[in-house]
Amino acid sequence: MKRKLFLIFTILVISFSIIITLISCKNTVISTARSETVTTNNISENKQSSKSTETTNNTESSSKINETTSTSIKSYLPQGEVNFKTDDGININGNIFGSFNRIVILSHMFPTDQTSCFEFAKFLNENKIAAMTYDFRGYGKSEGKKEIANIYKDLEAAIKYIS
Length: 163
Description:
Blueprint: H1 2-45, H2 51-70, E1 80-85, E2 91-97, E3 103-107, H3 118-126, E4 130-134, H4 151-162
Parallel strand pairs: 3-4
Antiparallel strand pairs: 1-2, 2-4
């Protein structure tokens, strides 16, 4: 009975983490779409009389829009092992799987470490979604003591790292 409850709880927490991350990514995409619209509107308002100048402006704006879209989530994230610091100075170890436009941060459960999320990260990659796993402070290769009360800082640092 305890094992079933633990499994249900684990699935709920992972689902919650995925939903929060997807909402964050959706907001980033919405912001990017809004900036693309503003850029396009500005180009329309500032059209010049010469067709060659107009073509040049449209080409430049398309490049800017593509740059904005591709950098909305760090497309240049390293593949494999990564390290980043929390606001309180703890070095956190993680791994990046894939390089797609969407990314999900996977947080592990007690008493495991990030390796428990690797299979799900691979599944996400098969569905064209990048994934980041990380060890909470005091777990795996992450520094510090195991402090459950401060693991939110570790997740915040992971979000900042991929943003």
